[in-house]
């Protein structure tokens, strides 16, 4: 396990001299909107039996509302943890707060790049990039990119991948 001499992980998730590009905060807005919709549906489903049959279901409504506020806070932390960095030979992607992950994708291993945006993503003007490599285990994803940045990054990664693949 990589780390410092004292046994801690140190800066294993921060490469030297790398400038991380964060994802858009619109991703947090999109995820929070979806969370709000789920909360409303869950609260209504539990409030109906609370009104019609027994007040014990109000405990469930309170739990759903409490989960909404916890989820609101958690979404903000998760989105702030996402970042990517383009280097000369590879792309770095990091995410996670409690369970951190750093993915290094060499440009020469990229086979194709997908850009995806669901209805909620489109409403908030964000897209996701999915990188497909020769090994399914190293596929990587960058969510929450503004549409123009997603397009720029898709073209740049595809051209770098073709250039590195041609050099093999």
Description:
By secondary structure, the protein is of the alpha+beta class. The chain folds into 2 domains: 26-78; 83-166, PH-domain like (Roll). Helices cover 46% and strands 24% of the residues. The chain has 4 helices and 7 strands, in the order E-H-H-E-E-E-E-H-E-E-H. The strands form 2 sheets. It has a 4-stranded antiparallel sheet with strand order 1-2-3-4. A hairpin with a 6-residue loop joins strand 6 and strand 7 (140-146). The model has no long low-confidence stretch (mean pLDDT 89). Residues 79-157 form the YdbS-like PH domain. This is Membrane protein YdbS with pleckstrin-like domain.
Concise synopsis of the structure shown:
The chain crosses the membrane at residues 33-50, 56-75. By secondary structure, this protein is an alpha+beta fold.
List the helices and strands and how they pair.
Blueprint: E1 21-22, H1 26-52, H2 57-81, E2 83-86, E3 90-95, E4 101-106, E5 110-116, H3 119-124, E6 126-133, E7 140-146, H4 147-166
Antiparallel strand pairs: 1-2, 2-3, 3-4, 5-6, 6-7
Helix pairs in contact: 1-2
């Amino acid at each position: 396990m990589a780390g410092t001499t004292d046994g801690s992980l140190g800066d294993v998730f921060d490469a030297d001299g790398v400038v991380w590009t964060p994802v858009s905060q619109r991703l947090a807005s999109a995820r929070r909107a979806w969370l709000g919709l789920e909360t409303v549906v869950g609260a209504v489903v539990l409030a109906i039996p609370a009104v019609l049959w027994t007040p014990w279901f109000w405990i469930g409504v309170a739990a759903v509302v409490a989960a909404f506020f916890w989820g609101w806070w958690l979404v903000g932390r998760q989105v702030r943890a996402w970042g990517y960095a383009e280097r000369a030979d590879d792309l770095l992607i990091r995410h996670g707060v409690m369970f951190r992950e750093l993915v290094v994708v060499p440009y020469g291993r990229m086979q194709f790049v997908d850009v995806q945006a669901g209805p909620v993503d489109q409403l908030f003007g964000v897209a996701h990039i999915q990188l497909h490599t020769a090994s399914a285990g190293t596929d990587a994803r960058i969510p929450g990119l503004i549409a123009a940045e997603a397009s720029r990054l898709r073209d740049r990664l595809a051209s770098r991948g073709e250039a590195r693949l041609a050099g093999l």
